[in-house]
Amino acid sequence: MKIAIVTDAWAPQVSGVVTTMANTARSLTRLGHDVTMVTPEGFRTMPCPGYAEIRLSIKPKGRVFRMLDALQPDAIHIATEGPLGHAARRWCLRNGMPFATSYHTQFPEYIRLRVPVPLKASYAYLRRFHRPAHTTLVRTATQKRLLKERGFEHLAVWPGAVDTSLFRPRGKSGLCLPRPIAMYMGRVAVEKGLDGFLDLDLPGSKVVIGGGPDLEKLRDAYPGAHFLGAKFGEELARLLSAADVFVFPSRTDTLGLVMLEAMACGVPVAAFPVPGPADVVREGSTGALDDDLAAAVFRALSLDGEACIEFAEHHSWERSTRRFLRFQQARVDTGAAGAEISAMHAPAPCRPDRASNDASQLSAG
Q1: One-character DSSP codes across 258-299
Q2: What is the pLDDT, as a whole number, of residue 365?
Q3: Which of 313, 331, 354 is the last residue of a domain?
Q4: Which range of residues forms the domain containing residue 115?
């Protein structure tokens, strides 16, 4: 099957979205499918405000249309709601092509932390973007429930995965620091709640792995913590395996693949009892959840890492990709799809007393 995956998030950006889509594409290829990635590579781009490492494509519509016209894929998956995602969405609607989307990140909450945009407006915009998709994939059952409460439809759960050939127990010699070692790995930014981790009164050492806009600020504010910057591949897995507890202080992540990666290395997770961690962490087995993050850390430190390893082994990329593929093969009824697409392009009835629907002012959609 010819599959086009469209994503505005791509290397050199480091994120769960990039990890997910890159590994999914590789797994699809191993399964014998013809995969074309439509990414910012080769497009004129500009840095995303607040996320300088994310490059947004500038006016990609014409080129995306030409790429998809030439490819004529059997299935299209739109992974992000950025410029490339919008261009691919327009192509699908214009050509009557069913498509799937995925919802990876709580962008309304991320935006709200930076600028005073009401959550209602952001979610209305996202509902509008995902509405014509035959399936919108979400990372957890909790996320599915929360989005359904906000009016999203045709949702399906697509769990995260981990490369257990890379992330596996490698002993504790990777870090020569006072123990226990409490570690965070991921983007160093305001939405990750790192102050909540670094403010904790814990014995041993605190280690932060990753880059991001708040790295230098936090490095200056917390001189007692060890900021190692971005790490990759074998070095990252070795450092992660050396931790005694993985602390995930975010309250806004949809999943947090880094938790699965820590578990695969035999490191239990301490986190808040919020969506994302609540779907991955098994209390008293793979970690601990508590509104008192320090209490969660101490409980997690008492756990055996074997249960973490066993849990991670059930989340392979092949298994995740087969589930992804099943939803790409899904099709809405052709007649219903055509009617929906025609309705979307038909002029709206004149209703002077009716407020603008959704948040179309945020995007041309």
Answers
A1: HHHHHHHTT--EEE-SSTTHHHH--BTTTEEE-SSHHHHHHH
A2: 32
A3: 313
A4: 2-161+320-362
